[in-house]
Write a structure and sequence with these properties.
The protein has about 230 residues and is mainly α. The protein has helices at about 15-35, 40-65, 80-85, 100-125, 140-175, 180-185, 200-225; strands at about 5-10, 190. Helices cover about 65% and strands about 5% of the residues. A two-stranded antiparallel ribbon has the order 1-2. The structure holds protoporphyrin IX containing FE (HEM).
Length: about 230
Amino acid sequence: MTDSTKQTVRVWDLPTRLFHWLLATAVITSVVTAKIGGNAMAWHFRSGYCIFVLLAFRLLWGMVGGRWSRFASFLYPPATVLRYLRGAQRAGERLEVGHNPLGSYSVFAMLGILILQVATGLVADDDIDNVGPLNKFVSSAVANQASGWHAKVGQWLIIALVLLHLLAIAFYVARKHIDLVRPMVNGDKALPIGTLSSADGLPQRLLAAALLAACAGLVGWVVSLGG
Ligand code: HEM
C-alpha cells in the first residue's frame, strides 16, 4: 500500500464472504432449475433449502458476526442516504467501510425478498407435481397465492434486484474507480488509519460453523415436517 494515511482493514469476515458466494450460486441454481423444470426441479428444491439455511445463518450473523457484517452497522436512516448521495459526509463518519447507505437498502431488499421467496416456496403447489413440504399446513387459497407470488412476482423481483446489484457494482468501478468485488473475495479494504476491523479469527469461524450447522439442522427439521 503506497498511501501512508491508509491501512489494510478486514471488512468482510470469511463467514460473510462464504455466505455471499454460496448464496449467489444457490440463487442462480434456483432460477436456472426453475426455468428448466421437469427433473431439474429436484435441484430447485435442494438449492432452495440451501438458500433457507444461508438466510437463517445470515440473520444470526447479522447480530453476532464481524463488526461490518452486523445489521446495526448498516442500518441507515433515509436522511443519511440522502446526505451520502449529496456527498455531504460528516467529519469522522465512516459510510463506506462496509455496505454504504444506498447499498445497505439493496442488501436488506435482497435478503427480505429471498426470505419471502423461501417462505412461499415451502407452501407452494404448482398443480403439476411440485409441492412444497409445508403445503399441507395451509389452505388451498393460501397455497395458490403463495405459488403465484413464488413463480411470478418473487422470481422477477429477485432477478431485477440481482441485476441492479451487478449494475451498482459496475457503476462503482466505472465511475468511482472503487472495486467492491475484491474485498468480497479477500475480505480487505484500504481505509483510513484507525478504521476498526471485523474480527475474523478461528473463534469467529468456529462460531459461524456451529451456527451454520444449527441452521442446517433447523431447516432439515422444518422440511421433515412435510413427511
Ligand atoms: C444471484 C446472485 C447474487 C446475489 C443473490 C447476491 C446477494 C448479495 C447480498 C445479499 C449481499 C450482502 C452481503 C452481506 O452483507 O451478507 C451482497 C453483497 C455484495 N455482492 Fe452480491 N449477490 C449476487 C451476485 C454477485 C456477483 C456476481 C458479484 C460480483 C460480480 C457480487 C458482488 C457483491 C459485492 C461486491 C458485495 C458487497 C457490496 C458492498 O460493498 O456493499 N454479487 N450480494
